[in-house]
Amino acid sequence: MASNTLSSREFSFLALVTAVSVLLLSRALQGGGEPIYTSLALSGLAYASTYYLIIQTAPSFLKAGLKGKDMSKRVQKEIPECVGAICAIVYLLIVMIFIPFAFYQDIVAATSGGGNRDVVIEVEHVNQGRFLHWFPHNKLASYLSAILSLQSITILGIGDDVFDLRWRHKFFIPFIAAIPLLTVYYVDFGITSVVVPNFLQNILGAELVHLGGAYYVYMGALAIFCPNSINILAGINGIEVMQSIVIALLLIINDSLYLLSAYPPPATESHLFSLSFLLPFLGVSLALFWHNQYPATVFVGDTYCYFAGMVFIVVSILGHFSKTLILLLLPQIFNFVYSAPQLFHLIPCPRHRLPKYNAHRDVLEPSVVQWTAEKQPRAYAAPAMRLLAKLRLLRVTYRQDQDSGREFFDTSSNMTIINLWLVARGPMHERRLAWELSIMQLLVGLLGLVVRHKMALFLFREDNLDLGNAVV
Ligand code: UD1
Ligand code: MG
To answer: Where does the signal peptide begin and end (predicted)?
Structure first.
């Protein structure tokens, strides 16, 4: 990072964002503090403060030893690492500031106040009139449980960036961090049945399958998967933040589909709730993206990856659309499944699997596992690797033993979606690679949403865009 002061262009832009946000906030307050505009205004302020704080605090990260080498550059400079902590902290403060704006109307204006939960305004007015746009007080528990989970994951992330924790020590922490969410889900919603697709209904003889406790295990597993899946789709400038921004945008589109249609209140509440967590997330992430995009001046650290993953878990569990989230995480799921042989050490997994930098051409190429005559893939792995190579899902080079004429594995590409993209598309510049992968994520996600809302009718009797709050 060249300096820790804002350039005049940056200053003007941030001043503009701040002024527009303050204006929007005062307008929202005049209108009684309508949450969606308040949230938008606070997200603008979150963007401006994150952007400014990253520039201001970057030298302190270096001084504290929180730094990493940018490996895909001719000169491998050390730049601040763990800067995602700034995002997470600004985010947590902003969502706390939002609490009185979101709940004031319902707790104070719609009731007789003083902690009473009686509704003094007619129920129809609360459910259908302007009050529909405010958060009811029973959402406060959800809101606070979300903050608790996000705080826990932020502590884990910072701990990991500082101490480089072992897998076995950190694996179950996201599950534990999700317990507040799961408890609120149990008390407030508690639906653990899933709708059976039409074609299976005759075979199973039921329209619903009751999963009971297994549904909580599934949500807990998702809480472990999501933060980690973002952390392993990493290693080139911008990619961690870009994929998170794309997923957040897709979730915002999904929420807007519900909010723009005529809905019964429970569904609108869930998606309004989700938006109030996603908009500030977008604010802090866009600011981080600006500093982390190629050529990066800061690294996001594990803190950001875990925190981003947990934001998605929070909104999807409390918004009751955890299965929609899975459709938006297809590239991360593919990356995990494809990585599994290395993650479970069936194939050696180096500390870093990021692509290899070709300084001569300034492009990235797939990084590889180097095999030797003594250390060859295990008997069961070798045929699978040959098959993947035939299917062009792995780049393998072979070597022939001079004496015996036997063929050996020489190298095989590291099994990440980033390397696979390079295998399929050829070497490319780091910036282009990050953009191509993010565009792929966007297209896959958009397709996922279309499948979710349009094709769902082939599989299920109704899409819940028509049902309100039923779980499909
Ligand atoms: C995960 C991946 C690892 C990948 C790393 C990159 C698995 C199991 N682990 O490990 O393969 O190499 O993320 O983030 O898949 N870096 C860059 N350029 C970037 C981003 C990171 O050079 O744009 C390097 C820097 O040296 C940075 C380091 O990666 O210091 C961060 O790695 P870290 O987040 O600690 O790795 P893991 O999350 O453990
Ligand atoms: Mg990492």
So the answer is: none
